[in-house]
Amino acid sequence: MTTTGRRALLTAGVSAAAAAALTGCTASEDPGPRKPSAAEVEAERVARAEAALRLRSVTASRTLLERYDAALAAHPALAPRLTPLRRSVAAHAKALGEGGTTARPATAAPSPSATATASASASVRPTAPPVPVAADPRTALKELAAAERTAADAHTAALVTAPPEYARLLASVAAAGAAHAYLLTEGARA
After folding, report:
1. What mean pLDDT is predicted for residues 35-46?
2. pTM flag (> 0.70)
3. Among 90, 55, 95, 92, residue whose Cα is nearest residue 72
4. Contact 103, 93 (CB under 8 A)
5. In terms of C-beta density within 10 A (0-12 exposed, 13-18 middle, 19 or more buried), how is residue 130 classed?
6. Cα(96)–Cα(103) distance, rounded to whole angstroms?
């Protein structure tokens, strides 16, 4: 799957290489530092904006995934109902993060080097507190549905600034989130 972020990065790299090659071929009296072209600056700005958008989208999905994990831990009897939805949310978080974010998956086991890095930065960035879950299973489902709606709203709001390919993915994930919210609340009554 090709993403706009990869294209922008590739375009910026090719532009930089071409500019460096052409600069080396000209006779210049002042060999001072080369100023980036307007196209290079714009390509970098677009790549940074898309990376920030991806990080926000992945964070919203991973936060939702953590809520599913907490609800499953607090109410194991809900597993038949929540497990398929949780699997879907995990797939969405993975798809949203492909091609541009460096955030670690919420469900991945840390590697030894990541553990060393995490312990070194633990004093800088505290870990998130555990997600509170209601004691009543029905209330927990309602809270999970509200979290699904919040994540879907965040993905929908991001459509305005997303590149076309990523916007289609965000729209699909937002629609799935709305369906999940329905299944968590109204779907149980049907």
Report:
1. 87
2. no
3. 90
4. no
5. exposed
6. 11
